[in-house]
């Protein structure tokens, strides 16, 4: 039990886990598009990690430390882009960072997280832009749509988890848990269909298998479930396409 608590505190609560899952989701599409590069992987992880730390700790006593850490992370990211890419990639990265700040920042009177029902789509938008725009020479609409619908579906279970504590209107509070699950099922289904018709066979197959697992995890999402179910189980869904790809390539 103590080991699980330590694991949750050091890996999941530290935002390392969600950042790693988001990075592996991007790696899946980078490999499919044959644009995989280690500096880009590091760039994406640092961007996710610093962004989630900022969101979590901006209202705490650790804020100044997090702000300093983010400043260092920004310098590292800029160096990675300038050294390995070009000024266009730097502009793309900067726009995505700004979109992340608009999601939830202490210096804004109204930010995205305060707007009813918009949060799930906005998170899907930012993750989709990373996969379909930041990592590619040209914007890819199919990858954007696959990512957008899939990630939006994965955010909905977190609204189910937080429905008793959220201060803004969310889908579970508005239409109920079961109807929220139906929306998530539909979003996953649409993302699978788009993936099947636009990704190469092995990648489409890996995404299809990931969708099946995701369906089961969404089905068992309930407000009374332990937080680990969501912060570990649901978060892992975004890495499943890459993990299934590794298994299929190995065998």
Automatic annotation (TrEMBL):
Organism, scientific name: Chryseobacterium kwangjuense
Transmembrane segments: 12-30, 36-54, 66-84, 90-108, 115-133, 139-158, 179-197, 203-221, 228-248
Keyword Transmembrane: yes
Organism superkingdom: Bacteria
Keywords assigned by UniProt, alphabetized: Membrane, Transmembrane, Transmembrane helix
Name the UniProt record assigns to this protein: Prenyltransferase
